[in-house]
Design goal:
The structure is a homodimer.
Chain A: E1 25-26, H1 36-42, H2 52-69, E2 75-79, H3 83-94, E3 100-105, H4 108-119, E4 123-128, H5 137-147, E5 151-155, E6 157-158, E7 163-164, H6 170-176, E8 180-184, E9 203-205, E10 219-223, H7 225-232, H8 245-252, H9 264-280, H10 282-302, E11 318-322, H11 329-340, E12 342-343, E13 355-359, H12 367-383
Helix pairs in contact in A: 1-9, 2-9, 10-12, 11-12
Chain lengths: ~375, ~375
Amino acid sequence: MDHRIPVVDNKHRITTTQLDLPPRLLLGPGPSNYCNRVRLALSTNEIGHLDPKFIELMNETQELLRYVWQTDNKFTIPVSGTGSAAMEATLANCVEPGDVVLIGVNGYFGDRLCDMALRYGADVRRIHKAWGDVFTPDEIGEAIEQHRPVILGLIHAETATGAMQPMDRIGKLCREFDCLLLLDTVTSLGGAPVFLDRWHVDMAYSGSQKCISCPPGIAPLTLGPRAIEKLNRRKTKVANWYLDMTLVGKYWGAERTYHHTAPVNMNFALREALRIIAEEGLEHRWERHLRNAKALWEGLEEIGIGLHVDEEYRLPSLTAALVPDGVDAKAVIGYLLKNYNIEISGAFGPLAGKVWRIGLMGHNSRKENVVLLLAAIKDALEAA
Amino acid sequence: MDHRIPVVDNKHRITTTQLDLPPRLLLGPGPSNYCNRVRLALSTNEIGHLDPKFIELMNETQELLRYVWQTDNKFTIPVSGTGSAAMEATLANCVEPGDVVLIGVNGYFGDRLCDMALRYGADVRRIHKAWGDVFTPDEIGEAIEQHRPVILGLIHAETATGAMQPMDRIGKLCREFDCLLLLDTVTSLGGAPVFLDRWHVDMAYSGSQKCISCPPGIAPLTLGPRAIEKLNRRKTKVANWYLDMTLVGKYWGAERTYHHTAPVNMNFALREALRIIAEEGLEHRWERHLRNAKALWEGLEEIGIGLHVDEEYRLPSLTAALVPDGVDAKAVIGYLLKNYNIEISGAFGPLAGKVWRIGLMGHNSRKENVVLLLAAIKDALEAA
C-alpha cells in the first residue's frame, strides 16, 4: 500500500460551534426528559461489549425489564435501535410468508404494523376503529374467528391518539385459537399497568424514551415461549440480519457470541432508568402518572379544552387535547416552544390540526410540569 | 378503564448498585475510547427529534460525514443503529430479488455481506482470498467479467484480519460493467485514507465506535446517485421497514417527515466526534494513525511477535499480531485485562487462537498507549 497521504478536499470541512441547546421541557409524544442519574449513567466510562463487567450489567437489565413488563420471559432484551426496530423485530422473527396476521388499526401504529408485516410476506387482515377508539373483546373474538390469524397485533397504547386498549379476555381468546398475541407497549411501559404474562401476551416491544425516561436509541423486546417456539420452527432464515433474534439471542444468552457491537452507553442509561423504576415501584409510578394526568385533564377542561378519548380508555402518559375552534394548532405549538421552551406536538392522519398530543411521561409526570403547561397554554390561547 | 392499580409481582424487582466500571483502555477491534468532549456532548440536555435546533444539527452532521468520507453524496446520514445496521441498509435498499451480488470474501465481514444479501433474495457469488490477503484489481476485473454482478461488495478494512483492500482501478471497472460498488469502511473511516468519490464508490457504511471515536449505537451510511437511482427504480418495497431509506430519507431530507425517533444523544456525540476530526484535519489524523501503528509494529517485532498482514496491506487502525508458539492467546488477553485494564481481542474463524487483534483507533491512537501496551504484553508473555 502506498502510505503517502493524498490531497484532501476540504469543501465539506465546515466549522461548527459547540452544542448549545435550549433547555426544552419535552411534553410531547416523546422523547421525554430523563433525570440526572440517567444522564450520568449515559456518560459512564466505556467498556467493551464483551467485557465481563458488561455481561453482568446485561443480566441485570434483562431482569429489570422483566419486572417492568411483569413477565417471566427468558427472552427479554434491549434491541440496539429505537422502538421501531423492536417493533419490526417481533414481526421479522415470527412471521413466515403466507402467515395470516390480524392487526387492530385504530391509529398510526396499527397501520405501521400492517406495513411491516406485509414486508415479511404476511397475509395481512385489518380490523378498524376510529382514531381514539379501542376494540371490545367481542370485536376481537369475532375477527379472530373469521380470519383465524397466526398472529394478532394490537396497540396497547396508541401514541397517535392517546387511547389505551383494555386487555381483558383477549389473551385467552388468542390461546383458544392458537394465535400469538403481539402487543405494542411503547407509550404504556413504565407509565400504566402492563401485565404481559397475566394477559397472555406472546410478543411485546417498547421504546426507551417515553415512560422509561431514557434517551432514545435502545428498545425493549420480549418474546414468550410460544413466540420462541414459532421462531425455532421457521423453515426459512429470518429475512432481516440485524434483527434476527436467533443470532442476537446468542449474544444475550449463555453463549455471549458476537453479533453486533452493543451500544454500551445506551445500555448504561437504560439500566439506570430501569433501576429508578424498580426503586420507585411500579404501583407508585402508575399511580403518579394517573394522578398527574387527571390534574392535566381537569385543568384543560377548565380552560375550555376538550379531550379526544373517553376517560375510560384514556392513557395517563399521553393526552390528545382538542384544539378549540378557530385556534391554529401549529401556532400554539410554536408559541409554547418559543416562549416557554415547552415541546408539545400536533397529530397526524385524521387528527392532524384537530388535537395536540401532550405527554406526561416517566420523569416528566410531575405536578410542576402540569401547572406550568396549563398556564403556558392559557397564555398561548390569549396571545393567539 | 378500571384505573385501580392491580397487584404487582416483585420477583424480578432486583436491587442493583450504581454503575462502577473499571477504567478500560480499549485497544481491541472496537469500541475504542472516546475523548471527554464527546462524552460531554453525549450527555447534553435532550431536545426533540423534530426540534428546529435538532434539524440544524442534522445538517451539520451530514456535511461533516461527507468530509470524512470525501464524498459529495447528498444522501449521507447516520443510521439509528450500530454499524451492522448501516451495513444491512446498503443491501436491503439496493438489492432486488434475483440481483447478482458479487462479494469479495477475505475475512468475517465479507461472509456477513453474503449472509445479508441472501436474505434479500440476491444471487450471491463469492470470490475468496485467505484471511489477511487482499484482492488485486485483475482478480476483481476477471470476477466482474465472469459474474456480471449488479453490485460488487468489498471490505476496505477487514476488522477480522487487519487487511486494507487497495482501491485503485476497482471503481472504474465497476462503472465499465454498470455495477454498483459497495464498500465497508467500518474500521478505516477516520483512521486511514478513504476517498469515496475518487474511488467511484456507490454505497458505503461505517461504525461510530472505531476511528470516529464516538460510542457505538449510530452508524454512518452514504448512497451515491447511482445507488439512489437503483433504489428509486425498485419494483418492490424495501423488505425492511426500519432501514427503508425511501422513508428514512424523508426525515433526513427536506421534508423532515417522522419515521422513527432519532437517537438524539447519540447524534450529539457523533456530531462532536466529527467536529474533532474536522479540527484535526484528515491528513493529520491519517498520519497520526500510521505513525502510531508503525511504532506498534516495530515494538511487537522487537519482542518477537510477528504480524499477520503484509506491511503493504496493513491497516493502521487494526493490527493482527501473531501469537507466538506455545503461548495461550486467551491467557494473555485475560492477563492484560486483569492487570492493566487493557482490552485487546482474539480472533475468529481460521485466525482463532493464532492472532491477537490490537486496535489503535481515533482518540486511542496515541504514543502513550503504544508504549504501555508493548510493556504490558512483554510482562504478560514473561508471566505466562
